[in-house]
Amino acid sequence: MTTNIPNDLTITPNDRIAIEDLMKKYCYFFDRNMPKELSELFAIDAVVDYGPEVDNLNGQDQIFEMVSKGLSTTFTATSHHISNFLILSADAETATSSCYLYAWHRYRNKSEIGHLWGGYQSEFKRTKSGWVIKSLRLYAVSTIDFHRDTMHSINRN
């Protein structure tokens, strides 16, 4: 993933909005327990990396299965907040982005609320029907009572 932030990208304002909206819809569908709609934001062959404790999810079907299971057996409520959205690279057919994340989790099996501060690194591709998420990688800066002990780092210099 690109680490330098370019000044001049080959992307239209409408494409930028569409790409950012994919991430907002991801949060919206997750928090409203809508795993089918969430999985349809991804490319058929997408890869999701939620961290070293979890095998990568490969394709819409695995994304749907994992998110469905988590929403029905692990969480009673979630609230995902993204900010600082940046397009890091882009051309007419692909783009990469980074955004910050605060995620709040109420669990079914414990009384503590889980907190995660971190972000998503994502890749997108254009399809005939519009932009989709090609890959998504979750990283953490800090957690409190979160359901995972090991997360990807932000790779801070």
From TrEMBL:
InterPro entries xref list: NTF2-like_dom_sf, SnoaL-like
Chain ranges of the SnoaL-like domain: 14-137
Transmembrane regions listed in the UniProt entry: none
Entries under Pfam families matching the protein: SnoaL_4 (PF13577)
Protein name (Swiss-Prot/TrEMBL): SnoaL-like domain-containing protein
Native organism: freshwater metagenome
Lineage: unclassified sequences, metagenomes, ecological metagenomes
